[in-house]
Amino acid sequence: MINFLLARIGSAIITIFGASILAFVILRAVPTNPARLIAGPFANDEVIAQVTSQLGLDKPLFVQYFDYIVSFFAGDWGFSYSAGQPVLSQIVQRLPASAELALYAFLFAFIGAVFVTVLVSFLASKWLDRLLRLLSFISVGVPPFWLALLFLMVFFEQLGWFPGPVGRGPAPGSVHTGLFTIDYLIAGNFSGFATALHHLALPALALALGPFGYLVRLLRANLLDIVNEPFVTVLHAKGVAPVSTHFQHILPNAFLPTLTAGGLILAQLLGGSVLVERIFVWPGIGTLVIDGILRQDYAVVQAFIMLSAIIYIGVNLLVDILYGYVDPRVRRS
Q1: Whole-number pLDDT of residue 38
Q2: Using an 8 Å Cβ cutoff, are 264 and 305 in contact?
Q3: Please, what are the domains in the chain?
Q4: Residues of the chain whose pLDDT is less than 50?
Q5: Which residues pair with 14 in a beta bridge?
Q6: What is the pTM assigned to this prediction?
Q7: How many CB atoms lie within 10 A of CB 137?
Q8: What is the Cα–Cα distance from 8 to 308, expressed in whole angstroms?
């Protein structure tokens, strides 16, 4: 097991450094001069040269990369000149909003997909199975930002059931985690929890439908494969109850690939809700990144790329380790 863990950790470290090189090279390849953007359109060549020297842009490329990596892992993620504050401070302020949105979208997608797929497979109804397949194909093919706009038009403008693009709603009086729903529960304010969940519902559902469809298709295919395995035939021949066969033997074997996919989906949601956040005026990292792109604030964009890579790789590493504990075949291989 130790060799398994060391191999996964080593692979994660190599991947993070690969992502850092990619982020560094891509932004350096952009033709715009960051020093001119920072100095302003009316700065002369002397001022631009001074800013270039302060940023270290006059150093060799490999020296710039080394300084960037050392500074990043030391906690210096650059300075946002459009906002006038360090990038790390901005991300720390906005990360709880994005994390809460991604967490609820993941719960909606994962729990909903497992519940619906297991129920339909156990009932063995052909028309329910066809309806589930149709729903999964539609949800996978529709972009989240289009769903977000559709939800606003129907559930906010037409029906008035949910709040519009007003962000997270009122903040709790005391902040413990930065997640409004959790902080309201800690304070014992259940009406505030309901209000925060009400604001979360539409953007979380817009993000959840795509992963929901993917997980439904994956779990359904695994269930169909496991049903045809010889050990299932043996269980039926021994007279084991269908409920016991389905939930104690078929589902655990079919669930493992879904667990892996769920971890990757959670990592993707943590770093990939940019457009949905913008549509709902959600004060998360996505809104910060779009503003950084529009203002050509490269320090913000570069930090976001690195943070997304670290989250994605970190969650993938945890899922691999969990998979190794759950399935002994992985450890032996």
Answers
A1: 65
A2: no
A3: 34-74 (no CATH), 93-295 (1.10.3720)
A4: none
A5: none
A6: 0.78
A7: 13
A8: 19
Contacts of 15 (CB under 8 A, 6+ apart): 309, 313
Please give the Cα distance from 102 to 265 (Å, whole number): 10
179-201 in b/e form (b: 16+ CB < 10 A) is: bbbbbbbeeebeebbebbeebbb
User: Hey, what are 197's tokens?
Assistant: 């969940």
* 80 SS3 class: strand
What whole-number distance in Å separates Cα of residue 174 and Cα of residue 193? 13
The first and second tokens of residue 324, run together, are 């190794």
Positive or negative torsion for Cα 55, 60, 65, 70: negative
Q: How far is CA 216 from the centre of its chain?
A: 18
CA gap 168, 294 in Å, rounded = 23
Looking at residue 162, what is its pLDDT?
87
303 — phi, psi (to 5°)? Answer: -65, -35
Nearest to 217 by CA among 260, 263, 265, 258: 258
Q: Rounded CA gap, 329 and 4, in Å?
A: 12
H helices present in the chain, as ranges: 2-29, 34-39, 45-55, 61-73, 87-123, 126-141, 144-151, 180-187, 190-227, 230-237, 242-244, 251-271, 274-279, 285-294, 298-326, 328-332
Q: Which tokens belong to 193? A: 């929890």
Report d(CA 282, CA 276) in Å as an integer.
8
Backbone conformation region of residue 44, classed left if phi is above 0, alpha if psi is from -120 to 50, else beta = beta
Q: Environment class of residue 220 by beta-carbon count within 10 Å: exposed (0-12), middle (13-18) or buried (19+)?
A: buried
CB 248 within 8 A of CB 96: no
Could you tell me which of 143, 146, 166, 141 has the C-alpha nearest to residue 156? 166
- What residues have CB less than 8 Å from 239, skipping those under 6 apart? none
Backbone angles phi, psi at 61, to 5 degrees: -60, -40
The residue type at 1? M
